[in-house]
């Protein structure tokens, strides 16, 4: 398994339709993100300042948006680590497969929307960082 590296990670600006009655943004597969949306889930009620432990996916790609509040997406490709702060609902971060990720520094009442390229499959998760590094070494 090979990681495309952090070079493949992208912050994606989403359309923002400004209206005095309230703004609107949207996400479309293959237009804003490079994969079909097979699953969506959200992370909420995380106590302020808390974190969600890390993992990587063998196949799954993700797109994460902070619909409300803020949090940091910390990404690691086995060579380098980078922090992507998310705090607006009109942009998100695209994460290819085989990138280690964790979510940290949640503000109170934050809401993270995650769009996935695959259906849920527990076999797709790598939840041990040392195993992740070994998978990268053995490509």
Automatic annotation (TrEMBL):
CDD domains: cupin_QdtA-like (cd20292)
SUPFAM superfamilies: RmlC-like cupins (SSF51182)
InterPro entries, per the entry: QdtA_cupin_dom, RmlC-like_jellyroll, RmlC_Cupin_sf
Ranges where the Sugar 3,4-ketoisomerase QdtA cupin domain occurs: 9-135
A Pfam family hit: FdtA
Source organism superkingdom: Bacteria
Protein name (database record): WxcM-like protein
């Amino acid at each position: 398994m090979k990681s495309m590296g952090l070079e493949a990670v992208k912050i994606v600006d989403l359309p923002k339709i400004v209206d005095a009655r309230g703004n609107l943004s949207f996400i479309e597969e293959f237009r804003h993100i490079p994969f079909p949306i097979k699953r969506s889930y959200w992370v909420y009620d995380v106590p302020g300042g808390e974190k969600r432990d890390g993992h990587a996916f063998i196949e799954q790609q993700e797109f994460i948006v902070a619909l409300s509040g803020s949090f940091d997406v910390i990404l690691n490709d086995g060579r380098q680590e980078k922090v992507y702060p998310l705090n607006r609902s009109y942009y998100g971060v695209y994460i290819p497969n085989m990138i280690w990720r964790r979510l940290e520094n949640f503000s109170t009442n934050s809401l993270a929307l995650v769009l996935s390229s695959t259906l849920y499959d527990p076999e797709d998760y790598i939840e041990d960082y040392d195993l992740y590094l070994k998978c990268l070494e053995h490509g």
